[in-house]
Amino acid sequence: MLRAGPFSDERIVLLANRRFVPFFFDLDSRGFAGDAKALAFVVAHQKELGGGSVPTPPVLFMTHEGKVLAEVSNYASEQELYDAMLSVLEEHPEYARPSPAESALESPLERGMLSLELGDLEKAKELLSPLDEVEAHYLLGHIARLQRNWDEMEAQLQKVSSPTLAPDCLMERACRLWQEKRFEDLEKALKGFPRKHRRYSEACYHLGLALFHQKKKDKAVDVWKKLIEDCDEDPWIYRADWAVANATEKGGQTSFSSGKRSTPLGRIGYMGRKNPDLLR
């Protein structure tokens, strides 16, 4: 659930890689991600996770010494987890200090990209706005998309003439179509997205959503399954797996956790909330 849900959110991935050391493991050492040493470390500080039958564990924010700084429900939304990450850094500034490599950044473009990854969108805009470079215009368009300022997004993307960034601009515009629930336009925009581009899995996932919300569920599931089969695992693959699990549920079930049913990635279930992208 976590990798398909909150940890498929681009803001969370960027901030986690900049300021945290994320890891996951199964409480049962026989599981897919069994790690006896990690389990022993966590149970030493959260003894309730060491029993034979435990509730679904939360996301724990811990120091390397084992002190728990905060925790968030395993079923938290993307925004709830992101807000918790920002709160941890605000309450513990010793873990928000820039690395030597970050402190050495000199160009406004690089510093703007860093601010974007840290979630400081206003600082990123301040650094990038004076620049007349295609990369800066693209990033400003991306920021405007995150803030749902569509006019500003389009104004910035119109200034991006680089063929290399064309698929990125297409995906930014596709995200707008998704937010505006223009599903037919979204389908047309994403058909034929470059297979080798780094955002291909993101494009395919949204193509599936466009089909699903046009009452073409079987075609949507086919798109998601092919994506999972053809591409390496990444956040969009996990989210597609979650979408397949929910889209193919029988009898109005909202989750399953045992039995013979499994998802394309071999998961035995997605407990808790349904994939919010299917509920729009």
Question: What secondary-structure arrangement, pairings included, does this model have?
Answer:
Layout: H1 10-19, H2 36-43, E1 59-62, E2 68-72, H3 78-91, H4 100-103, H5 108-117, H6 121-128, H7 134-146, H8 150-157, H9 166-179, H10 183-190, H11 200-212, H12 217-230, H13 235-247
Helix pairs in contact: 1-3, 5-6, 5-7, 6-7, 7-8, 7-9, 8-9, 9-10, 9-11, 10-11, 11-12, 11-13, 12-13
Structure at a glance:
By secondary structure, the chain is mainly alpha-helical. Among the domains are: 90 residues, no CATH class; 57 residues, Serine Threonine Protein Phosphatase 5, Tetratricopeptide repeat (Alpha Horseshoe). It is built from 13 helices and 2 strands.
Question: Percentage of helical residues?
Answer: 40-55%
Q: What's the shape?
A: flat
Structural class: mainly alpha
Write down the Rg.
20 Å
Give the end-to-end Cα distance, rounded to a whole number of Å.
19 Å
Residue-averaged pLDDT, rounded?
89
Low-confidence stretches: none
How many beta-strand segments?
2
Number of helices: 13
Percent strand equals: under 5%
The order of strands across the largest sheet is: 1-2
- The sequence of SSEs as H and E is HHEEHHHHHHHHHHH
Major β-sheet, in short? 2 strands, antiparallel
